[in-house]
Specification:
By secondary structure, the protein is of the alpha+beta class. The chain has a single domain (4-253), classed as Creatinase/methionine aminopeptidase superfamily (Creatine Amidinohydrolase, Alpha-Beta Complex), CATH 3.90.230.10. It is 27% helix and 25% strand. It has four helices and 15 strands. The chain has helices at 4-23, 33-47, 126-143, 151-165, and strands at residues 50-51, 64-67, 70-72, 87-96, 99-108, 168-169, 175-177, 184-188, 206-209, 212-214, 220-222, 229-231, 237-239, 242-247, 250-253. The strands form four sheets. Strands 8-7-9-14-15 form a five-stranded antiparallel sheet. Strands 1, 2, 4 and 5 form a four-stranded antiparallel sheet that branches. A three-stranded antiparallel sheet has the order 3-12-11, with no helix packed on it. β14 and β15 (250-253) form a beta hairpin. The longest helix has 20 residues, at 4-23. The radius of gyration is 17 Å and the shape is globular.
Length: 255
Amino acid sequence: MTTLIDKRRRAGCEVRAIFSLAVEKLMIPGVTAKQVEDSVRAFQKKEGIVSGTIGYHGYEYASCVSVNDEACHGLPVESKVFKAGDVVSVDMVVIHEDIYGDAARSYYITDGPEELIKIRKEPLTPEEALIYHTKRACIQAAALAKPGVSIGTISESISIYAAEHGYGNVTHYGGHYIGKAMHEYPLISNYRNPMFEDHIVQEGDCFCIEPMFTLGGGDVATISDGWTISTIDGSTAAHWEHMVLVTADGRKILA
C-alpha cells in the first residue's frame, strides 16, 4: 500500500526530475520562456506527470517563469527572451496521485554553457550573489525544521538573513504547508508572522519554504497580466523554494 510519505517523496522526485531534465538545459541566452514551458509539458507528457498549475484559478501553464524584476508567478510567454546577465526563476508544481509537489529555482544566464552557479576564483556578479544568498537562506531555514520547533523560528531566520546580507525581502508572498492542496495552512512566511509564529512543527508535516530576495526593496505588485508579481522599484529578484518533510530526527528536502 502506498503511504502518504511515499506519495510526497514521489511528488518531490517528479519536480526534481523536471528541473534537472527539462529546465536547466534551457537556461542559456536566446531561449524563450515559452520554450521552457514547452519543454516542461513535453517531459510531463512523456513521464506521465500531472501538472499542478494548469487550471489553478484559471492559470493556463505548467510552469511559472519570472525574469529579473519579476519575483514570482511570471507567465512563460514567447516575448521573454533570455539574455546574458538575466536572473530567471522557474516555479514548478505537480500532483502525484492526490498529493502536490512544489519547488522553485533561480538561474543566472551566462554567455557560455554554465547555467548554474559554480565555485570560482573571480567575484560573483550581484545577480549571482543574490541567487546564492536566496538559496542559502532557504537551506538554512529548512535546516531548522524538526519536531518541536515553531514556524516563527523558521520564518524569522529568512528575514534575519536578508537583513544581514543587505537584500530586500519579499514578505507579501512566501511558503506554505502542502498536501492534498497546493497551498495549505499554516503559512511559512518570509518573516515572523504573528498569525502563525506559535504553530509547532510535528513529525510528518510537509511544507514549502520559499524566500524571495531582491537587490532593492521588498515591495511588490501584480502587473497588468493579472499573474506576474514584480518589484515596485524594478530591482532584480531571486526565488528559491524547497519542499521539506519533517522526520522524527529532523527533516528531508523532497524537492
